[in-house]
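Lecture 7 notes: from sequence to structure.

We start with a single chain of 295 residues. Read the sequence below before looking at the structure.
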Amino acid sequence: MTDDSSHADANARLFRSVLFVPGDKPRALDKAKDLGADALIIDLEDAVAPERKSEARRNALDALVRYKRHHLFTVLRIAEPGSPDLAADIPIAAQSQPDAVLIAKLEDPEQLSAVRKRLDDAGYHGPVWAMIETPRGVFNVEAIARQAPLNRLEALVAGANDLAEGLRLPEGEMRRSTLEPHLARLVLAARAMGLVVLDAVFNAYADEAGLEAEARQGRQLGFDGKTLIHPAQIYPVHKAFAPCAAELDWAQSVVDAFEDPANANKGAVPLKGRMVEHMHLRTAQALLAAALTDE
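Now the structure, written as C-alpha cells:
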C-alpha cells in the first residue's frame, strides 16, 4: 500500500539544500544541526574510508537520535546493493529510524525491491531515496521511479561524479553541460511519479559564483534542490533556488485573478494577455509559500 500522506509531506517540504555529512567526522556531525540546511544526509558510503566504517555507524546512530530532538529532516546514506557493507548499515537505519534512507548507486528496480525488503525485515519501514549515479542507473531510472508506490520511494538524487566517470567524460568546464541530458531524465522520471528530485554536488566548494550558477541551472532543469558537500554552499544554493521578484509578482497576480469573484468556478482565467489554469495557480501558491518560508 502507498502512503499518500507521506508523499504529500515530502513534496510539501523544501529541499533546496541537502548537506552530506561524513559519518566518521564527529565534529562535523555536531555542527551540522545548526547550519540551516533543509536536510542532512549522514553518509556511511563514499565519504567514509573502509577502515572507519564501524566508527561512522556508531556516530551516525548517536547523531540521528540527537537530530530528532532538534526536529531536523535526516537521511542516512547506506551502501550500494551488493556491497558487503550493506548488511552492517541496515541495522543502523532500523535502530535510528531516520526520515529517509538513501540507497547508493541504485541501478534497477530489482535492486530497489531487494533493499526495501531487507530494510523492512530489519524494522525500518520509512521512505527510501535512490541515488542515481551510474549509466545503468540513468538508463533504468524510469523503471525505478515506476516502482515508487510499492517501495515507498520518495526521492531521486543525482550523483554526477560517478556518472561522469562511467560515461568517460573528460574533466573541464563542458562536463556539466554534457551531463544535462542525463540529469534531465531524472527530473522527468521524478515528476512523472510525484517524487522529489535533487541535483548533484558541486565539488569546488570555494567557488561560490560557480556553485550559484550551477544551482540556477539545476533549478531551470526542474530540480527541487541540490546536494552539498560543505556548509559554505548552503546560502548560495538557497539564493539560487529562491523565486525572484518577477516570479513572485506573477504568482501573486495569478492568485489574485483566481480569487476575483468574477472568476469564481472558472477553470481558466485571462491574465495579462494569456490564459492561466489551476495548474498555474498551484505553481503560484507553491512559489509564494516558498518565499514565506525563506523569510
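The radius of gyration is 20 Å. Keep this in mind for problem set 3.
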